[in-house]
Amino acid sequence: PPQEDNLTLVVSVSDGVNAPVECTVELSFTNQGPTITCPAGPVTISTGDTKTQTVVTNDDCDALTVSVISAIDPGDVVNVVGNAISYTPAGDARLVTMTVEVSDGLETATCDITWDVITTAPYIVQIEKDEGPDGIGAIQGQFTDVTVTLNSFLASSGDDVYGVGAFDLLIAYDQSVLGFQQAIEGDIYDDCGWEYFTYRFGPDGNCGNACPSGMTRVVGIAETNNGPYHPGCLPDYVDVAPKDLFDLRFLVSNDRTFECQYAPVRFFWIDCGDNTLSNADGTELYISSKVFDFDNAIPVNNGTVGFPTFQGAQDICLIAEVQKDPPIRNIDFINGGVDIACADSIDARGDINLNGLAYEIADAVMFTNYFISGLGAFEYVDGSIAASDANADGIPLSVADLVYLIRVVVGDALPYPKVNPTVAKYTVEGAVHTDIELGAALIVFEGDVTPTNLSGLDMVYGQVEGNTHVLLYSTEANATASGDLVTANGTVLKLEGATYDGQPVNFDLVPGSFRVEQNYPNPFNPTTIITFQAPGVSEATVTIYNAIGQKVDQMTVQTSNGFGEVSWDASDMSSGIYFYKVVAGQYTATKKAILLK
After folding, report:
1. In this structure, what are the phi and psi dihedrals at residue 404, rounded to the nearest 5 degrees?
2. How far apart are CA 398 and CA 68, in angstroms?
3. What distance in Å separates the CA atoms of residue 301 and residue 293, rounded to the nearest whole number?
4. pLDDT tens digits, residue range 389-427?
5. CA angle, 540 as apex, 538 and 545 as ends, to 5°?
6. What is the b/e burial string over 401-415, where b = at least 16 CB atoms within 10 angstroms of the residue's CB?
7. What b-and-e string marks burial along 10-43, b requiring 16 or more CB atoms within 10 Å of the CB?
8. Among 74, 265, 305, 425, which residue has the least CB neighbours within 10 Å?
9. DSSP 8-state code for residue 169
10. Contacting residues for 549 by C-beta, under 8 A, at least 6 apart
């Protein structure tokens, strides 16, 4: 029957001759309703990632159907397969409570699953981008330390134990540029009392300094079996992030062909056990969620390329054996590396005695003494070595450098130009415009656009990953361009350039005119963003007035290259029309905003 009921069943039997014989059976139909139990506590999930929680259902004998009956936010994706609820959130960080229903066709039962949505992974492990002393880069021929840091991690939550109990990290580098020396315990060992630390050259086995692998494995464990002593930060880490896990000490190659280069130091995966973290009690293993290069812009991970790879733990790692929990994608990895100093940033090429005057007779005398007395001829060894590559062949302290230096001193040759980037500004007001003379330029526009050449140089363009790349160049002698370069109906994503002498140019975008944008959102409740641009202005004021002209708020804004932005919080204001006035140097503009509560 379709519902609970009491029925009488009459059974009759007859042989066709005698009167039928009957009996009566009383039937009672009941239904034991289903039960459902959801996992306790929130599961942390990153925006764009997918995780699964499984509910437990019971019933007397009926087939059960599990479904999510609560509304989900726009962009979120929920899939139900059997008793498994998979969720892919979009949007901002928030706590999501999802109502799950089980039905046997007659009765239903519900429970709630909770998700803690965050915009990054719960754990972030980052390799430092080492820029050397004063930001000039690491000095060749010297040691430099690259720090590996745990930037964020979960604290314990109720009966669930998160935290960090151990790490196993495999890191790759170019051994022709960086010679790995040792790994040094980070401050997590002193501050939190971690106990076990080891490293080895190469991914497998310890073959000492002779191992030409270009890879280093570093392993740390918070707790070891040493009696009553226990780490002080275990398992509740909420107050101690970030923490340095360890430093990697490298010797930077003295091969001057590597000057001005960037030597990447990156996480590398040979199998599922590489680059993993354990929670504090060892019940969960965390693997990569996303992998970023140092600019932390677009992830480079792909779970289908297979091992070995720089692109993170592969999807095969998520296939668990029966009755075993799979690893959890809980870690964002950020790669780093070492900027190697340009010789010119340490001292000018040809200034052997470091007196600020390059290619003078005293430089030739000191360089000559070097070939007789060795490095003792130099007062500041590193600077003199960096300045000694007079013929720009990448090999310092050579006789060829001495010959070329003497030729420059006597006027028989010209010194090689400095190759450090110069800084220039550009505007985008109809056309991409710059006042510096360029020998070539690369402009990247967002999307598929058609550019118009205004430069006088040759122009070619094409599509790369959905954006338009425009190259301006010339094969003619003395051909340069400045002023308006190109127009296109699209946003400029990137501008690179070089002078006619080959010196690179680093561009900063500056506004070409004063403009105040309409606040966004508008109408708003209770905060809104006000943006503006003001050429040559470093500070501005934004004043808020109500509808009858009374000043209700005022903010001072520091601009970045003439661009300014401020957030106005109108929580204490009543609904209505307001006016915001931007005063930036000689510029003034007023616009209207609507607060709607």
Report:
1. -65, -40
2. 75
3. 10
4. 888 777 788 888 898 898 888 888 888 766 556 778 888
5. 170
6. bbebbbbbbeeebeb
7. eeeeeeeeeeeeeeeeeeeeebeebebebeeebb
8. 74
9. E
10. none
Which pLDDT score is estimated for 61? 83
Among 395, 392, 365, which Cα is nearest to 378's?
365
Which of the residue ranges 207-221, 365-379, 443-457 would you say has the lowest mean pLDDT? Answer: 207-221
Query: Would the CA dihedral through 411, 414, 420, 425 be positive or negative?
Result: positive
CA distance 32 to 55: 19
pLDDT at site 523 = 87
Find where tokens 């073959």 sit.
207
Instruction: Give backbone dihedrals phi and psi of 510, rounded to 5 degrees, phi first.
Output: -130, 150
Tell the burial category of 237 from Cβ atoms under 10 Å away from its Cβ (0-12, 13-18, 19+).
buried
Determine contact, residues 261/145, Cβ cutoff 8 Å: no
Q: What is the pLDDT of residues 476-510, one digit of tens each?
A: 888 888 889 999 988 888 888 888 776 778 787 78
Closest CA to 171 of 210, 126, 215: 215
Q: What are phi and psi of 133, to 5 degrees?
A: -65, 130
Q: Quick: pLDDT tens for 534-577.
A: 888 888 999 999 988 889 999 999 888 788 899 999 988 988 89
Q: Is 389 left (phi over 0), alpha (psi -120 to 50) or beta?
A: beta
Pairwise CA distance, residues 204 & 217, whole Å: 8
Contact 341, 136 (CB under 8 A): yes
What percent of the chain clears pLDDT 90, i.e. is strictly above it? 32
Give phi and psi for 227, each to the nearest 5: 85, -145
**Is it the case that residue 25 has pLDDT exceeding 80?**
yes
340 DSSP 8-state letter: B
CA distances from 194 to 58, 220, 286 (A): 45, 8, 19
Residue 279 has pLDDT above 80, yes or no: yes
Contact (Cβ atoms closer than 8 angstroms) between residue 281 and residue 168: no
Question: CB neighbours (10 Å) of residue 268?
Answer: 22
Using the 8-state DSSP alphabet, how is residue 503 labeled?
A: -
Task: Identify the pLDDT of residue 238.
Answer: 43
Question: 578: exposed, middle or buried (C-beta count within 10 Å: 0-12, 13-18, 19+)?
Answer: buried
Contact (Cβ atoms closer than 8 angstroms) between residue 338 and residue 259? no
Q: What is residue 94's predicted lDDT score, i.e. its pLDDT?
A: 87
DSSP 105: S
Provide DSSP, 194-259. Answer: --EEEEEEBSSS--GGG---SEEEEEEES--S-TT---TT-S--TTT-SEEEEEEEEEEP--GGGT
Q: Assign 435 to helix, strand or coil.
A: strand
What is the C-alpha to C-alpha distance for residues 290 and 301, in angstroms, rounded to an integer?
A: 6
- pLDDT over threshold 60, residue 207: no
